[in-house]
Structures are given as C-alpha cells and as structure tokens.
Amino acid sequence: MSTHFIDEKLLPDDYPVYGDYFYLADGKVYRSDWHDVTVGELKRREGFKEVRTCNWRRYNGTNQQIADLAAQSPQDTNP
C-alpha cells in the first residue's frame, strides 16, 4: 500500500509528542513509543530532521493499514 501525505503540518521543536500517536518523520510514517517528550527531543533521540502531523484518517486508512505503513521502509511510504 502506498500513499501520498500532503499538507501535513510541520511541528515545532517544543510541540509535545504522545505515545501511540502517528507522525510523519522524515517522510515516513512513525508510530511513537515516546511519552512526555517534545518534537525536539524526539528528533535528537531518533535522528529525525523533521516531524509532521499524520492525519491518517484523511487517507481513509484503517488502524491496521497505518500500522502496516509504519512497518514499511522509507522508500515504500515516500510520495
């Protein structure tokens, strides 16, 4: 399954990150395991350059489809 993520908001470094939420990190769907961290901390810990929102409902994805996307390699999820 491939998808194109458009118009997702670039998150500032002080934005809170929530566990079990989906984000776009460097163009790849990322499911956060982190709790009580900011985007800046997430970027430092995981080596990401940018983190964006991931409004997966916009893409008509089910929870399983999005989990499958998160497990794919970056080239499989990039537009």
What can you tell me about this protein's structure?
The protein is an alpha+beta fold and about 80 residues long. It has one domain (about 15-75). It is built from three helices and five strands. It has helices at about 40-45, 65-70, 75; strands spanning about 15, 20-25, 30, 35-40, 50-55. It is globular and about 30 Å long. Mean pLDDT is about 80; it is low at about 75-79.
What labels describe this entry?
79 residues, two-stranded antiparallel sheet
At a glance:
The protein is an alpha+beta fold. The chain has one domain (16-77).
- Summed over residues and divided by their number, the pLDDT gives a mean of 78
Low-pLDDT stretches: 73-79
Secondary-structure-derived class: alpha+beta
Strand order of the largest sheet: 3-2-5
Tell me the major beta sheet: 3 strands, antiparallel
Order of helices and strands: EEEEHEHH
What does the radius of gyration come to?
Answer: 12 Å
Number of helices: 3
Q: How far is it from the N-terminal to the C-terminal residue, by CA?
A: 12 Å
**Helix content range of the residues, please?**
25-40%
> Judging from the principal axes of the Cα atoms, what is the shape?
globular
Strand content: 15-25%
How many β strands by DSSP? 5
Q: How many separate domains? A: 1
